[in-house]
Write a structure and sequence with these properties.
heterotrimer, A alpha/beta, B alpha/beta, C mainly beta, B: alpha/beta, Rossmann fold, about 40% helix, C: Alpha-Beta Plaits, two-stranded antiparallel ribbon, 4 strands
Chain lengths: ~260, ~350, ~80
């Protein structure tokens, strides 16, 4: 085929990403969210006015790739660090990046109080229903029937209790302005998630209070499925319980 | 100008004069009034004071504030400090300047402060004021030391210090201005391939993986440098002493008073007070104890600082405990040991 | 011989592909297929068939930042065997 004039419409890396090189598993959904965050911050012109607070999980390994000021937090503690940082740098966009083990297990108190206080930060939850980094154990968001390292027969309510749906817990709080759950199992949902993240950042920038975007991400390793089956598993198993959509917008709950 | 001030208020004023603009805490006796003082005064200075949902979040908020380059502080009493240990360990390895106040219930938190209840190898600089006047000076010094060394500094107070009123001048002392903080993640560093990542993990922006070993060894070297540069102490009448009394904090005020009194009565007794509990002034104590017959340690606990005293004295003289657990019916540390006559009697007993 | 319109194309950084195959079902015109070519880490890598629309779906779903996407200024016709 002869050479044709073409316009590049998509680059390998967002401008704010220092390197593509990471050791997260094949088929992991977390890097997809990283791309969205970095593209949005660039689009909003906030590269020199943004601070990320990173929790502890597989995604922690993505932190060195990020060309933004970052603060590394302990497991579960990103919201409190983000609170202190935002109070001292109110002009900066503050976001947290946390997994479900981090935010909904260890740090549940932090995200609830940060939301209730209406801190102007955006908490971003990467929810794959397992503790990925430590090998795939159950978290608070693991759904009934889901097989994990310590629920090999499938999570049962009688033995392991019920999952927590975080967005549903946070949305009713008065200080929460924008709450949404997206997914990255296909391109359409990646785009939809991008819009949610943008609305969350805009809510923060308008001084309207707390925003939360939960993103369901694939973890084929933690789910014991081949990588190609990850998106389908996410949609069917996690997505049927942690339902995608906006739960709160402009401070008003959305009927679902 | 000097004003009669309660210790808690004087300490808060000193911190504000040093440029502290962020405080977070959780109410707990006898720390609560320090939190209240910051809450009353910070907003007018453009700062922020938050009541956190637990002590873990209090230090977390202060961590985030300090990471942006602000002068920040937090505090509690022993139990709350217990909750903060993981964060203190990580903060030290993230090389963050943070001032932490322990308004302790007695003196039973010496081990917690100097050995650290957190994980891994780390050291906090620990300052133990004797009275409100010194607390004002050491509080300001704490912010300077924290920034200079990029290390947390713990100010060890107690109920007596928090709630005693003394005449103090709470004006800004002539300390060096806060240093530039090019390492701070203040939000302005993105997009130029050289972001500021404030992390305890030993990461390098742009590179995969971590290198904890060389990172932690570098911090160990820093702590060794602090240990050489920063020990501080107060000593009186040690030159010809046969008995050396060692005490820290509020209780040392009683010891110092008793030693001065007993000296006028001809007793050859000396007094030694570590001002830095870490780095412990071991060399100075070893010199002071070189020719004494006995070392008596007066502390309000089951025996904690006495370990460091024994290590410093290294067998040059026997070391005996003349303090002990002593507290009030609420456990806040106002025990019968805090009595000038009683302390004098204990010292006299050790001289025999 | 039928003519397939390619309105766009991609450049694939195959050396860092981990062979997860997420790009294959994500591609709306289904012009990405896993080939038998393996890269240095042993992963099978995708190849592009004619018919790319330059939509960028592959770029959105690739965890390893392997795709660069182009739209042709003028449609390119390619013959499919």
């Amino acid at each position: 085929m002869s050479e044709r004039a073409a316009t590049r419409t998509g680059e390998f890396l967002p401008r704010l990403q220092l390197s593509p090189d990471h050791d997260l598993c094949p088929g992991c959904g977390e890097p997809l969210v990283l791309r969205l965050i970095l593209e949005l911050i660039e689009e909003l012109g906030l590269a020199e006015r943004a601070i990320g607070v990173v929790g502890i999980g597989c995604y922690t390994a993505l932190a060195p790739l990020i060309d933004l000021d970052l603060i590394q937090a302990l497991h579960g503690r990103a919201p409190s660090l983000a609170t202190g940082a935002k109070r001292m740098r109110p002009e900066a966009l503050l976001f947290t990046l946390q997994g479900d083990g981090d935010m909904v297990n260890e740090g549940l108190q932090e995200v609830i109080h940060t939301a209730a206080r209406g801190e102007s930060v955006t908490c971003i939850l990467l929810n794959n229903g397992v503790f990925g980094e430590t090998g795939g154990h159950m978290t608070a968001t693991t759904v009934l029937g889901q097989r994990t390292k310590n629920t090999l027969e499938g999570r049962s309510a009688a033995q392991h209790g019920h999952p927590i749906r975080l967005c549903e817990m946070i949305a009713p709080l008065g200080g929460a302005h924008y709450v949404a759950r997206g997914s990255v199992h296909d391109a359409a949902n990646v785009s939809r998630t991008r819009r949610m993240l943008r609305r969350a950042f805009e809510a923060q920038l308008s001084g309207s209070g707390f925003s939360l975007v939960e993103v369901l991400t694939m973890c084929p390793t933690g789910w014991f499925v081949p990588t190609a089956k990850g998106p389908g598993y996410l949609d069917e198993v996690l997505g049927s319980v942690h339902r995608v959509g906006e739960l709160k917008r402009d401070g008003t709950l959305i009927a679902r | 100008m000097r004003r009669l001030m309660e210790g808690s208020e004087a300490i808060a004023d000193a911190a504000l004069a040093a440029g502290c603009r962020f405080f977070a805490g959780y109410p707990m006796t006898p720390f609560t009034e320090l939190l209240e003082s910051f809450a009353a005064k910070l907003p007018a200075l453009g700062g922020a004071c938050l009541n956190a949902e637990s002590e873990i979040e209090a230090i977390g908020m202060a961590w985030g504030a300090a990471a942006t380059g602000a002068r920040a502080a937090t505090g509690s009493t022993g139990q709350g400090l217990a909750l903060m240990q993981e964060s203190l360990s990580e903060l030290t390895r993230a090389e963050l300047p943070l001032v932490v106040f322990n308004m302790a219930r007695g003196q039973g938190d010496y081990f917690q402060a100097t050995r650290g209840g957190g994980h891994g190898d780390y050291r906090l600089i620990v300052l133990a004021p004797i009275d409100v006047g010194e607390a004002v000076t050491l509080t300001q010094e704490a912010f300077h030391l924290a920034d200079h060394w990029r290390n947390p500094v713990l100010v060890m107070g107690d109920y007596l210090l928090a709630h005693t009123q003394e005449a103090v001048a709470a004006h800004a002392y002539d300390f060096a201005p806060p240093p530039e903080k090019p390492w701070a993640a203040d939000g302005t560093g993105g997009g130029r391939k050289s972001p500021r990542h404030v992390s305890s993990l030993g990461t390098t922006p742009g590179s995969k993986g971590i290198d904890p070993e060389s990172f932690w060894r570098r911090i160990q070297a820093k702590h060794e440098a602090i240990a050489t540069a920063e020990p501080r102490f107060e000593a009186e009448s040690v030159e010809d002493a046969e008995l050396l009394v060692v005490a820290f904090g509020s209780l040392a005020r009683f010891a110092r008073h008793a030693v001065r009194e007993l000296r006028t009565e001809g007793l050859r007794v000396g007094y030694f007070r570590p001002i830095t509990l870490w780095p412990f002034p071991s060399e100075a104590l070893a010199r002071a104890a070189a020719k004494v017959r006995r070392v008596a340690v007066l502390e309000q606990n089951a025996g904690q600082m006495i370990d460091d005293v024994r290590l410093a004295v290294l067998g040059a003289a026997p070391v005996v405990a003349i303090g002990g657990i002593s507290t009030d019916s609420s456990g806040f540390g106002i025990g019968a040991l805090l009595d000038p006559e009683g302390v004098r009697a204990r010292i006299q007993g050790a001289a025999q | 011989m039928s003519a397939v319109v390619s309105r766009g194309t991609v450049v694939i950084a195959a050396e860092r592909c981990k062979g997860c195959e997420l790009c294959v079902p994500a591609c709306p015109p289904r012009v990405l297929l896993m080939s038998d070519t393996r890269n240095a880490i042993g992963a099978r890598v995708p190849e592009l068939l004619p018919g790319c629309t330059g939509c960028g779906a592959c770029l959105l779903v690739c965890p390893d930042f392997c795709f660069e996407v182009y739209r042709y200024d003028v449609e390119a016709l390619a013959c499919a065997d």
